[in-house]
Each structure stands twice: as C-alpha cells, then as structure tokens.
Amino acid sequence: MKTLQKTLLAVAAGSLLSMGAQAAVSYGNGYTGQPYVGAKVGQFDLDVDGADDPTAYGIYGGYNFDPNFGIEAEYVGSDDADYRGGDIDAKTYGAYGTYRYAFPNTGLYAKGKLGVARTEVESNYNVGPLNVSQSDKDTNLAGGVGLGYSVNPDFSVEAEYDMLGSDADLMTVGAQLKF
C-alpha cells in the first residue's frame, strides 16, 4: 500500500474509533455529537473513451459535531466494466468535511462535502496479440452534493453526486445508521 492510502485508512480508522468515545460528548447547546456508518451503491462516471461506466459500491463513516457540521471518510470500489475487449475498474478513498442543512419539519436535508480523494483507475485490454495494463492514480481536491431523508432519528437514506477530480465522478444512493 502506498503511504497516502495508509494515511487515509489510518485517519478513517482513527475517526471511527474516536466517534464511539465521543458519542456522549455534549457540546453545551443541547446537541450531543453523533457518529454514523453507511453503505452506498451507484456508478462511476469515468472520462475514458470507449469504457463502460463501472458499478460502484462502498462504505463510509462519519461524525456530526452538531446538526450542521461533521467529518466523513469513505471507500468506494467498483466491479469490472468492459473496455476495449478487456476491463476497467476504479476505486477511491476520501476524507471530507461535511455540512448539512435540514429543511424544517420534513426530514429532508441537503448535504455538501469538501475534502481530499485518492482515485485509482486500472484497465486491462488487448491490442492485437498484446495484453496492455494501465493504471492511473490521482489525489485531488474532491467534493459532493446530496439530498437525504431521515426516516427516523437513527436511520437515513441519501443520494449523492461526487466530483473526484478531472477524470472521475461518482453517483450513489446509500443508507446510514446513526448511533
């Protein structure tokens, strides 16, 4: 594993571990911080000519410091999609600051996130008798927007569109469990 991947995984693991310890912390405004974990599925939109867009699946976790601001870490991978008689797949690791705006009396909320994502795209295809393997790895400023619905205080569903850099976008739907 590369150093950045290890760092992102360590930050994500540390964030998730500290969430449990901080879950009972009161911030003096009547709000107690809230950790959450979730899963998502969707589709990568890769800027690669002739490639099908791979199906994405991922997990994420975060912590809301108050009703509006929080942090989130995620991993999203993909299946193999067709590309020039071979295949292409993608994965991304990200760490974000988040902002939520709750629409009054509806359960709906808008979500924005901004942070850093490492995106890796790997392809294998044939050129005549030769098998060609390519890999593209970029770390970029990344962000996203989404719309969510809180089914109850402990469970919500979200739809998101994430911009991961110059060569990849991600559209997902997911569900999260809050603690």
Automatic annotation (TrEMBL):
Residues 10-163 form the Outer membrane protein beta-barrel domain. Residues 1-23 form the signal peptide. Keywords: Signal. It comes from Psychrobacter alimentarius. Pfam families: OMP_b-brl. This is Cell envelope biogenesis protein OmpA. InterPro entries: Beta-barrel_OMP, OMP/PagP_B-barrel. The lineage of its organism: Bacteria, Pseudomonadati, Pseudomonadota, Gammaproteobacteria, Moraxellales.
